[in-house]
Amino acid sequence: MDLDLAQTFITIVSAGSFARAAERLHVTQAAVSARIVALESELGRRLFVRNKSGAHMTAAGHEFHPYATQLVQVWERARRQIELRPGRDAVLSLGSEFSLWSALLLSWVITLRKDRPTVALRTDVDTPDRLLDRVQSGSLDIAILYTPRKRPGIEISLVIEEDLIAVTSSSETQDLSTEDYVFVDWGPDFSAQHDAAFPALRDASLCVGLGPLALRYILSAGGTGYFRTRAVQRYLDSGQLHRVPATPTFSYSAYAACSTQADTVLIQWARDALVKAAGALQDPWI
């Protein structure tokens, strides 16, 4: 069986629809549909029921899912083991969200290389959903993310705790106002908590999907918004920014999502190194 068919099947299950799976796989929806038709033809069973709410596995789909996952994982482990070159005793694949690579991923890679240079490292930066897809399929051993969703075949552990706090460029600001508020999209969990606490701010005139851009905007043009404590601490200390009084904090910690099919000794070593690297960070990340 073509492994692309199994990978497409797994991606549809995690994405919840053929359209979202096509986006993650960087192919057309027609290509995804064709792959599933081919897979269903090989198996002789229908795997999905499609409706307006998305794609849902049939009983046969539920039966096939663990086998599809194992097929992809075994292939990935075999491919990586065969490509080992002399002087290397293992391969470890790492991934992170975009906002974590410049500090945490970099520090982690340096720590791993110093501790065990005979381990070959493969690193990548991607969106949370695609990272989890790859951990689940076995093409990534560990990914570091904010608020990862639980999935079969993935073990999640806390790396470092972080809070989002409300800060402002004006020392006279006493509450959050729609006039100068910048909504920073920290993901669905934050949005739900934020909307419950501040329903009037749902229609902020400026919404930014990238923390560094939003912070630089407020430092340059003024305004108010939620940012990670580590990212804004130096600006609070210098008086460039100020805490907005009587506003709630929101948790936004970093986690390691590890494949349960990977080498447990290698994973534990890498996870310990990640915690060590996070604790040793001197510069904040955004």
CATH architecture of the largest domain: 3-Layer(aba) Sandwich
- Tally of separate domains: 3
In percent, how helical is the residue content? 40-55%
Radius of gyration: 22 Å
From the N-terminal CA to the C-terminal CA, the straight-line distance is 43 Å
Q: Assign the structural class, choosing from mainly alpha, mainly beta, alpha/beta, alpha+beta, or little secondary structure.
A: alpha/beta
- Bulk shape: flat
Percent strand:
15-25%
Topology overview:
Layout: H1 3-15, H2 18-25, H3 29-43, E1 48-51, E2 54-57, H4 59-82, E3 90-96, H5 101-115, E4 119-125, H6 128-137, E5 142-146, E6 154-160, E7 163-168, E8 182-184, H7 188-197, E9 206-208, H8 211-221, E10 224-228, H9 229-238, E11 242-243, E12 250-251, E13 254-259, H10 264-280
